[in-house]
Amino acid sequence: MYYEIAADDTGILQDYTPCAPITDRESWEGLSQEWRLESIRLGERFLQYSYPPLSATDYMDFTRTGNRTRFEDQFFARRLALSALVLAECTEDRQRFLDDIINGVFAVCEESGWQLPAHNSYVRDTPQLPLPDRTAPVLDLFACETGAILATTYYLLRNRLNALYPSVTKRIQYELNERIFRPYLDGHFWWMGDGVQPMNNWTIWCTQNVLLAVFLTDTDQALRKKVLLKASKSVDYFLAEYGEDGCCDEGAQYYRHAGLCLFHVTELLNAVTDRAFAPLYEEPKIQNIASYILNVHVDGKYYINFADCSPVAGRAGTREFLFAERVHNPDMMRFAAKDFMAGGQDALLMSSENNLYYRLLNAFTAERIMKYASTHTEKIFHPDLFYQSVGLFIARDDTFCLAVKAGDNADSHNHNDTGSFTVYKNGAPLLIDVGVESYTQKTFSPQRYEIWTMQSAYHNLPAINGILQMDGERYRAADVSYQMSETLCEISMDIAGAYPKEAGLLSYRRAVSLHKSREIVVKDCFAFDTAASDTAASDTAATDGQKNTVVLSLMSYEKPILQTDSDKLSFRLGDLGILILSGASLLAVETIPIDDPRLKLAWDHELYRILVQADGTELELHIR
C-alpha cells in the first residue's frame, strides 16, 4: 500500500522539518524551563569529552571471543555524548558545546565502519567478517542509525556550522553519501525485502533511519524520489509479515523498533508529500499495530513477554503518545502519558537513548504530554484478546493478568515456548518468562538453543521423557480454541506437536483459564505412543530408566515455600500468591542466580524453578 502511494506521487518532495533548528530561538526558548536546565546540565557532563577509542582489535574482539559488549559500549558512548551535546548547544546557543560536537562528528565520521561487528556480513545468517571494509559499507541497524544521528545534527546546527566551520557539514554530507545513500540505492541488503525472505524489525528500523538521513540533509530530488520508492517497497514487505491483528511477534521491546518506526516512516512520508500517506492511519491494521503496546502492558514497568523480549521492556512516552494521537486511541494516549510521568528524569531527557532524532521529538513533546497526563486521569482500558497471527492469548481481571503463548517455535527471536504461560498478580510477576541473557555470538548461531533461557525447560512447560521442545515452524500448537466472557477466559491447545516424535507423545492438551475474581487454572492431559516412549526412556538418562514421564517446570520470581499443612502439593510464592497442584509429586525447587547484566535489568534477585513429576496422565494447577 505504501509503494502504490509513493509511485503515484510525482510532486516535489519537501525537506523534513520535524522540529525547530537552532536558529529558531523562539521555539527553543519556549521549551519548559526544567527540560532546558536539565538538558544543559547533561551536556556539561561531556564538555572536553574524550571520545572512547575504537581500534581494529576492538572490532575483531567479537569474531575472536564472541563478546559484543566491549566494543558496543564504546561505540554507543560516542553517540550518546554527541546527542547530549547537540541538544545542549541548541538549548543554550552560545557555542560552548560546539568544539566537543565537532570532535564527536569527526570521531564518528572517521570510524572505519558504522556497522556493529556482530552484523558485519553481506549475506543474511552468514559468518561475520572480522573487520569492516571501508570501500563496501554494510547497512545494518546501527550504520543506518548513525546516519540518522549525523543527519539530525546537520539539520539542527547547519546554519551555525556553515557560518563558522563549513567543512563540518560538508564532511557529514560526504559520509552520508558514501556510507548510506550510495550503498542503499546501489546494493541490496536482506532487510530491504524481496517478497520471499521473512522480514523483521530491521526492515522498518533501517528504512526509517535512511529516510531521516536523506530528508534532513541537502539532497536532490532525483535521490529523494529513488529512496522514497525503494523505502516504500520495503515498508510493504515489512507489513506483509504482520497479521491484520497487528501483533508484533518479537515482543514489546521490539515494538519500539517495529511499530514505532513504522509510525515515524509514515510521519516523514506524509510531511514530504503533503500528507499523501495520511489515510493509512485509518487502516485497521495500522491502528492495531499501534495499540499492541498498550495491550501487552501489565502494570508499572512490566510487560507480557516472550521470545527475546524482556518483561521490563522500557517506559512508554513521546513516540507511543504521538502514534496513539494519530490513530485516535485515547486509552493508549493516557497509558503513554502516565508511563512517561512514571519515568521521571530519564523520560524527560531520554539520556540513555542513542537516536538524537527521538530525543529531539521528546524535547518538543514532553511538556504537552505532562499537561495531558494531569488532565486525563481516567482508568485505562485493557481488553481481553487473542492475537490469532501469533497465538498470543491475554486475559485480565482486577487481580490477575494471564498470558498464554500458542503459535509455533519459529517466531523472530524465537524461544521454544509453545504452550507457555505467564501470570502477574496485583501487577507483580508470579509465574514468569525469564527473557534473554546478554547477546553474544552464540545467541544467533546454530548453538542458540543450548542457552538455557531459550529452552522449553525454563518456560512453564513439561519435559517429556526427558525431551524438550524443538525450534522451527513445524513445532507448533494444534487444535487451538478459546473463549472469552465477562466471567471466564480460556484457551485450549494440543502442544504435542511442539516436541519431536522421539518424546513419544500422542497428545498433550493444555487448557489455561482465568476464572475472573477467583483464580487461574491450568489443566494438562496427555497420552503416549508406547513404542516411541519406550525408545525415548531407554535413550534418555534424565528419566532414570522410567518411561512415560512428564516433568513440569514452573518459573517464579518469588521464593516458593512448600505448605506442609496442606493435603495437596502447595506452594506459597512469597507473600504474593499460592500454587496448588494435583496429580504431581515434587522433585526439586531450584534457585537460579541472576548474574547476567541484561537479566539484571529485569530481575533484582535470583529466580526459582519448581520441578514436579506427573503421577498419572493428568496435571492440574490452581493459582490463587
Could you explain how this protein is built, in words?
With 624 residues, the chain is of the alpha+beta class. It has two domains: 2-375, Chondroitin AC/alginate lyase (Glycosyltransferase), CATH 1.50.10.100; 385-623, Distorted Sandwich (Beta-galactosidase, Chain A, domain 5). 39% of the residues lie in helices and 19% in strands. It is built from 19 helices and 21 strands. The chain has helices spanning 2-8, 25-29, 33-44, 56-65, 69-92, 98-109, 141-164, 166-186, 201-215, 221-240, 252-255, 259-272, 284-295, 318-326, 330-342, 344-349, 356-375, 530-539, 597-600, and strands spanning 297-299, 302-303, 385-387, 392-396, 400-405, 408-409, 421-425, 428-431, 462-464, 472-476, 478-484, 488-494, 505-515, 519-528, 550-556, 560-562, 569-573, 577-582, 584-592, 607-614, 618-623. The protein has an eight-stranded antiparallel sheet. Strands 3-4-5-7-8 form a five-stranded antiparallel sheet, with no helix packed on it. Strands 9-15-20-19 form a four-stranded antiparallel sheet, with no helix packed on it. Helix 5 packs antiparallel against helix 6 (98-109), helix 9 (201-215) packs antiparallel against helix 10 (221-240) and helix 9 (201-215) runs parallel beside helix 12. Mean pLDDT is 95; it is low at 540-545.
Topology:
Elements: H1 2-8, H2 25-29, H3 33-44, H4 56-65, H5 69-92, H6 98-109, H7 141-164, H8 166-186, H9 201-215, H10 221-240, H11 252-255, H12 259-272, H13 284-295, E1 297-299, E2 302-303, H14 318-326, H15 330-342, H16 344-349, H17 356-375, E3 385-387, E4 392-396, E5 400-405, E6 408-409, E7 421-425, E8 428-431, E9 462-464, E10 472-476, E11 478-484, E12 488-494, E13 505-515, E14 519-528, H18 530-539, E15 550-556, E16 560-562, E17 569-573, E18 577-582, E19 584-592, H19 597-600, E20 607-614, E21 618-623
Antiparallel strand pairs: 1-2, 3-4, 4-5, 5-7, 6-10, 7-8, 9-15, 11-12, 12-13, 13-14, 14-21, 15-20, 16-17, 17-18, 18-21, 19-20
Helix pairs in contact: 1-10, 3-5, 5-6, 5-7, 6-8, 7-8, 7-9, 9-10, 9-12, 14-15, 15-17
